[in-house]
Amino acid sequence: MRHLLLLTALLLTFPTWAAKPPKKKDYLVTLTTDYGTMRLILYNQTPLHRDNFIKLVKKNFYDDLLFHRVIEKFMIQGGDPNSKKADPGQPLGSGDVGYKVPAEFVPELFHKKGALAAARDNNPEKASSGCQFYIVQGRVWDDESLKTQMARIATLNGHQPTEAQQQVYKRLGGSPHLDGNYTVFGEVIDGLAVVDSIAKQPQNPAGNRPLKDVRMKVSGEWMKKKKITKQFGYTY
């Protein structure tokens, strides 16, 4: 009952904005850094996260924020509003927008390389931060290491990647232990090499903040799905 009440409170305080997305269009996100540009799409299966992210992008919320936490072979994290004017070496990661987004776990959406997912604290509902996100780099898994990882996942939360997802983890890479624990709500469809470049930047071991600031500019536009497929090779 306590969890139900907490979730109800989240739903009552979480703002919703977006209308039903156009059927023939998708929201293309452009994320620019000094290390290159990424293009991302947002999943319609996670409408709360999609709508929240679009709202923030339209407000230019993410412009000049940092990727404040990077771990090679794992992920790059950004979206802390405190990072915009942070002093060198200042600890980051606690900034937010005053609300959480209820978790939207979809088994078909998983932590492959390039997955866009929502960061969160240790709240029992696994509700997401209202603004902080990460992009998965992960690692490529062989049969034996993935088998060991799957046994660990089963112990933690009972989640198991499907056979098709396992093949992606072995071919492209990712971070399977995050599945079922954090909401995946989009993916990089162009510019995966930028994730690699950012992830390998020298960093302060305390907090994994890059020694050289990695700032972002984020914009978006509704684009015809056929055009997205033609330009970036992403198939629906």
CATH architectural label:
Beta Barrel
How far is the first residue's CA from the last residue's CA?
Answer: 39 Å
Oligomer type: single chain
Strand order of the largest sheet: 3-4-8-6-9-2-1-12
Q: Give the averaged pLDDT, no decimals.
A: 92
CATH topology tier name: Cyclophilin
Shape: globular
- The tally of domains stands at 1
What Rg, in angstroms, do the CA atoms define? 17 Å
What is the H/E string?
A: HEEHEEEEEEHHEHEEEH
Query: Portion of residues in helices?
Result: 25-40%
CATH class: Mainly Beta
- Given as residue ranges, the uncertain stretches (5+ residues, pLDDT < 50) are 1-12
The number of helical runs is 6
Strand content: 15-25%
How many strands, what sense, and barrel or not for the largest sheet? 8 strands, antiparallel
